[in-house]
């Protein structure tokens, strides 16, 4: 297997600059468009209707608002296909914020108003659901708590396993790289206007495990090379060598994983399965950033921390 000779530590400013630029773009989108929460997190009600032909999203939104006297959010999904590949009716999803559920009479009133505007659309209720805002908020907090506990356990695990090469610092730098991945996934939801729902938590937890696995392999090679290259080898040379030795493996793993998820995304797009596409797209981004952070972020951060500690020891020894 080919071994590269890339100076990852020396090029760290380039890698950090790329990440910071992408984050600033995501932050700009966040400021301009805000964060959309699905009703699973913010609470509210959602009704989904099927229909034939074409409808205008703005018109549907106005009709529903005039009928219910409530603020609504409307999404239209066209060319939805069934599992056997046959085209079925298009769908329009209507979301209501608040704590009140939508009664059957209100659903029928909405259907009647839409049918009056679009008599040939044949609107029919597909599904209806509601979530109490308190329950949604509690669910969101529990999900964030799960992510926090996962990060703490990862630090402790890496600190114990790699205690011979500065385990705690290795763990902290690895988690910083993981937070980089989480932020990138979050901004993917923001940029592509995907409401934050349980898919966001699922993607984050999956990427945490995927990215950490890549980072651990690099740390394992660093530990082995520390024994082979000797304790006097500079950390920059040690880490550069270790990352280059595992670079091909990281690329192949990320490429295979990305291809598999991309296939899922394409199938989801073809069949109009929103729950699949809103999971697969952030996962694709997460796989790329997970590989990138393991190779270009975690290693250089680890070297910077070790060099900082070495300078502190020198200063203390001179004092």
Automatic annotation (TrEMBL):
Residues 120-307 form the Protein export membrane protein SecD/SecF C-terminal domain. One of its GO terms (cellular component) is plasma membrane. It is found in: Cell membrane. Keywords: Cell membrane, Membrane, Protein transport, Translocation, Transmembrane, Transmembrane helix, Transport. SUPFAM superfamilies: Multidrug efflux transporter AcrB transmembrane domain. One of its GO terms (biological process) is protein targeting. GO terms for molecular function: protein-transporting ATPase activity. Pfam families: SecD_SecF_C. The chain crosses the membrane at residues 14-33, 139-160, 172-194, 200-219, 251-273, 279-303. It is a multi-pass membrane protein. The keyword Membrane applies. Part of the Sec protein translocase complex. Interacts with the SecYEG preprotein conducting channel. SecDF uses the proton motive force (PMF) to complete protein translocation after the ATP-dependent function of SecA. Forms a complex with SecD. Part of the essential Sec protein translocation apparatus which comprises SecA, SecYEG and auxiliary proteins SecDF. Other proteins may also be involved. HAMAP family: SecF_B. Belongs to the SecD/SecF family. SecF subfamily. This is Protein-export membrane protein SecF. It comes from Caproiciproducens galactitolivorans. The lineage of its organism: Bacteria, Bacillati, Bacillota, Clostridia, Eubacteriales.
